Amino acid sequence: MRKSRLSWYKQIRLIELFVAGCTVRTAASLLAINKTTASHSFHHLRLLIYKNNRRRKGKRGRGAGNKFPVFGLLKRNGSIYACTIPNARAGTLIPNMKEKVKPDSIVYTDYFRG
Questions:
Q1: Whole-prediction pTM value?
Q2: Among the listed ranges 16-25, 46-55, 60-69, 90-99, which one has the minimum average pLDDT value?
Q3: What is the H or E stretch that residue 82 is in?
Q4: Which residues 6+ apart lie within 8 Å of 84 measured at CB?
Q5: What are the structural domain ranges in the chain?
Q6: Separation between Cα atoms, residue 14 and residue 52, nearest integer Å
């Protein structure tokens, strides 16, 4: 919030209210500022948190140390099946899928880069 016209005190108070879980309207009324200004500040804080959490430390990918490939299924009723597998190759995945998925099922896949 470098180019903000808010005083330094109000900027700090906005951050404190954001951390406390205060709503935008409540923060705006407590600091006597426009709710659009408070909303913009909260949005800016959320973007900063998002950008800082995207950085990952350590090795990544399938061969990274202390990581294991996981095969998982999620049914629409909320039940979950998950197990660790030795590798993420088709020869390992297809038998697991044939065992756990009914033949007439519709399967939606999602490739997750964790």
A1: 0.47
A2: 60-69
A3: strand 80-84
A4: 68, 69, 70, 71
A5: 8-53, 70-100
A6: 19
- The Cα angle at residue 33 between residues 30 and 38, in degrees rounded to 5: 90
Q: How far is CA 59 from CA 4, 62, 71, 88, 100, in A?
A: 39, 9, 21, 18, 32
Question: Tokens 């033949």 map to which residue?
Answer: 103
41 is written with which tokens? 């500040």
CA-closest candidate to residue 62, choices 87, 85, 82, 83: 87
Determine the Cα–Cα distance for residues 20 and 23; give it in Å rounded to an integer. 9
Residue with tokens 């997750």: 112
